[in-house]
Structures are given as C-alpha cells and as structure tokens.
Amino acid sequence: MVADRYGLELTASHEAGLAFDDGLDRLLRLADGAVPAFARAIALDPTFALGHAALALLGHEFCAPVDIAARLRDAALHARRSTERERSHVHAVVSHLAGDPAPLLRHLETYPRDALLLSVAVPTIAFSGVTRVPQQAWDLVERCRPSYGDDWWFTGLLAFMRQEQGRFDEAMSLSVRSLALQPDAGHSAHARAHAHYETADHGAGLAWIDDWIDGAGSGADSLLHFSWHAALHELSVGDLDAVRRRYETQLRPGPDTGCRALVDSGSLLWRWALTPGASAVPGVCEVLAAVDAELLRCPPTPFMALHAAVALAAAEDCTGLAVLERSCALSPDPDQSEVAAPVARAMRRLVRGEASAAADDLGRLTPQLWRLGGSDAQREVVEETRICALVRAGRYAEAVSLVDRRMDRRHCRRDEWLRRAADPVRPRRA
What we know:
Blueprint lengths: L1 E2 L5 E2 L3 H16 L4 H11 L4 H14 L5 H11 L5 H14 L4 H9 L4 H7 L12 H11 L7 H13 L3 H14 L4 H13 L3 H13 L8 H14 L3 H12 L7 H15 L11 H6 L2 H5 L4 H13 L3 H12 L4 H18 L3 H11 L10 H17 L3 H14 L3 H10 L8
Antiparallel strand pairs: 1-2
Helix pairs in contact: 1-2, 2-3, 3-4, 3-5, 5-6, 8-9, 9-10, 9-11, 10-11, 11-12, 11-13, 12-13, 13-14, 13-15, 14-15, 15-18, 18-19, 18-20, 19-20, 20-21, 21-22, 22-23, 23-24
C-alpha cells in the first residue's frame, strides 16, 4: 500500500505516491516546489486522481499555471478506481472549486487526517478557507485536534487560530514548539509573526522575522508575505527609509510573483502612501503588470477582490474599479456581492474625490469585513483607508475617534502620525 505521511492510502504507483507526499510536505511547510512535486506525481502515474485534484486546487488558490478544468476532469475520471476516501476527497475539491464547501467540510468529519483538505478549509497564509465565520474555522480545528497529537504542522495551524482568537501568549508558545521540531515550518512562523505584530512587539518581531527569512525560512514559497510582515513592523515604528529598502530588495514584484504581488506588494504600497509624511512612494504599475488582468476584473475570492480594489485605488483607476465592482456584484458568492463589491465602490468614490461618501461606505462595511477572508492585519487596510477618507472629508473628530480605538488596541508611532494628521492641535491624552 502507498500512503501519505498521515497514513492515508493513495491509489497510485509507489513513485507517484512519493512525489505526492513530497508535494504535501512542501505545501504544509509552505516550502517552494509543491506544484512541481504534484505535477511529477501525475507524470509518473497519469491515473492518480489526488495528484490531479491537488494541482487544480493550487491553480485555483495560488494562481499556479494549471489547466484547472482539465485537472478536475481527470481527477473525477480516475477517482472511480480509487478508495472511498479518495473519491470523497476529489468530490470535495470539485465542489469547493464550484463554490460549494459543504462536501469538503463533511469529508473532514470522516477523514480529519486529510491534512491537504484541512489546510484548504481553514483560512491561513496558504488558503483562503471555506468556513463562513471565524468561529466555524476554530471549531473545525478543535474537532480535528485529537487526530494529530503533537504533529508540528497541526501545532502551527493551532497557533494561528490562537492568535486569531487574541490568545497571543498561547499562539507564541505553540509556534515556538512547532518551530523547534521543524525550523522551516511556515504556518508556525506565520503565527509567530502575527503574535509579534498584534502585541506591538515590533523590535523583537522584526529581528526574529529577518533572521527566519535569511535562515530556516529562506526556502519558503510565500517568502514575500513574510517580508510584508517585516515591512509592517518598520511601517508601524515609522521607519519609512527601512520600508523603502525592504520594498526595493524583497517586495518589488518580479515576473513570477503572481498573486502575492497583489496581496503583499500592492497592499504595502497603499498603506505606505496613506502614512503621513510618506514621500516618493513607488507606483503600483509594477504590481499590476505582475498579475493576470483577469484577476483584477474577476477575482476568484473576496480576499483577492479586496486586494484588487486596493491596487486599483493606488493606481487611481476608476474604470478598473467600476469593472471590478460589477463583476463582484454579479458573483453568486454573497461575500463577493455583499462585501467585496461595496469595497470596490467605496474605493472608486475615494479616487473620484467623494471622500465623505467613501468613508460612510467603509464604515457600514466594518462589521462585515471578516467575510473578505485573510487576517486582521490584512483587513486593517480598509480601516486605514477609512481614516484617510475621513481626514480628506474634513471629518476630523470621527477620524480621531477611530485612530484612538486603534491605539488603545495596539499603540505605534505610525498611528500617532495618523492622529496628528486628523487633529494637529490636540495631542492624544495618555
């Protein structure tokens, strides 16, 4: 029997099974090379259903150069000769990519050790997730916990959930434990990065993440995102020269950056440009050139739609924002039509000079922003845009109130600058 690292049987040749397991390992570590490993698996055994399904997933979620329709078709075809678990796995993938997450969640009730699909189900750095509210993701992880014991990958996944719950000490402890077992464990490193940021531990957080990027994490597939985390620390402490150096050396998009250019480089440029005192911020044209134009017109997820809206706003592209708003509004996904489309509309209003209307739009959306996916740190870009809109509209008292709430949650020098821009006369009381 060929089995993956969690003991689940694979209907494949021995060599193809090893290649698949290599891809799974790389995916769970966030290491480079998962797509080539899964492609090698189906090259070694073209009838390997899970290999085809894995490539379809990465094509959909990572913007990998994959013929998604062909891989789904072959996965469904060859699943007929597979085990019941593999047939359920393929059905879950096909349904998920068609917009129905229910089969995937049911699959995990029966097969909690299917780590690939558990990773897909939970919103993390790797996947946007399939749960409707954060509590559902947390409950899913807790239900699967007995099946993994002290497994380093699951420990990192649990650490990320803990920081989402605001349990930062536990998140730090779990991530450190996981990294001691697997120093390049990307999920664990990501959880630790968030714990540092959310507790305003910017000095120690920046020192640690730089060491990880240059050391154990140097082979990470999502290294750009860790550089984004480092830049957030630098932005928070007001070191704009360091932000510029970080962008030039680590975050400037390259020809193969893909979706991460939109999520990391684009959002950083916008937040940098919103920072009082920022000057000569690089244009977003390189980011837009690095992504497929279809991603800006019709993004596959609300999370991508948010970042498309941010990049188009940075480019002051009202036409592009109008196209994005229409495509999201017509989406069968309610998160796209009810949240992403209004975000695009608010951004378009801001670019058109309708700052007060944009601020009102973003304010109404605030309770629903979690539906866009991603992390609190990523969705903060909407809050910062709203502050900018309030200041541009001359609604200073509202801007000050919003900044004060941010500073009560997590104090930093950049927020002091934002407050001064909103109320240059009266400094915030201690």
